[in-house]
Design brief:
It is a single chain. This protein is of the alpha/beta class. The protein is 13% helix and 20% strand. It contains 4 helices and 15 strands. The chain has helices at residues 173-182, 189-194, 196-200, 204-209, and strands at 18-20, 30-32, 37-39, 52-53, 63-65, 70-71, 76-78, 117-119, 124-125, 130-131, 136-137, 142-143, 148-149, 157-160, 165-169. The protein is globular, with a radius of gyration of 20 Å.
Length: 210
């Protein structure tokens, strides 16, 4: 079968700063698609899960990442466990310190819950990006380095900044609709191999649409 072995943690043994993170030991409430990689030049990419913060199984929120995503070092996924109760005078979490303060422990229902964090397919996330709870990032999107994502990102759009804001669409609406329809990331490996030149070419999209 053409292409790298999607079941290997390090698909290229000569580049051990990059790994296919779907091959890490499974973790509850985390789903990662084939060929999605994490790159980290400062520490082992095997420590990817350390970048998922405040993720408590009892809350039930999921981190879902699609196929063929490129994720750079410094990524932070802030999950729903980071949220504080916000409808009182103070947001201070007295209950976690004991000494009788636990009498005001909130229920799960009292806490803000933003739902699952979902990253689409073929998403490129630059260095030192923070993604807040419940964010949805569409297929083909790009998030610039050092961005903090606080709202959903549309497919095939580029966002950057703190807070991350829309910069531009990668393609016009007709081309985006076409890409979302063909979903190349779901093609079998042989078809992807046969179309590699088109997938990476500047005029490949026009050729596929013709």
């Amino acid at each position: 079968m053409p292409g790298p072995d999607k079941k290997k943690l390090y698909p290229n043994e000569n580049i051990r700063t990059v790994c296919f993170i779907s091959n890490l030991p499974k973790r509850p409430n985390v789903e990662i698609g084939d060929y999605t990689y994490y790159s980290d030049n400062k520490k082992s990419p095997e420590r990817f899960y350390e970048n998922i913060e405040h993720h408590y199984e009892f809350l039930g929120d999921k981190l879902i990442i699609g196929k063929f995503c490129a994720i750079a070092e410094g990524i932070k996924f802030v999950m729903n466990g980071a949220n504080h109760k916000m409808d009182g005078i103070t947001t201070y979490p007295f209950n976690i310190f004991g000494g009788g303060w636990e009498k005001v422990t909130p229920t799960v229902e009292d806490l803000p819950f933003k739902g699952d964090t979902v990253i689409g397919n073929d998403v490129w996330i630059g260095q030192n990006v923070t993604i807040m709870p419940g964010i949805k990032v569409g297929d083909g999107a790009i998030i610039a380095a050092n961005s903090t994502v606080v709202k959903n990102i549309e497919p095939y759009s580029i966002y950057g900044g703190n807070p991350a804001k829309f910069i531009k669409k990668r393609f016009d609406d007709e081309k985006i609709a076409f890409l979302l329809k063909i979903q190349w990331w779901d093609w079998d490996e042989s078809r992807i191999f046969d179309n590699l030149e088109l997938l990476v070419s500047g005029d490949g999209l026009e050729q596929l649409m013709s």
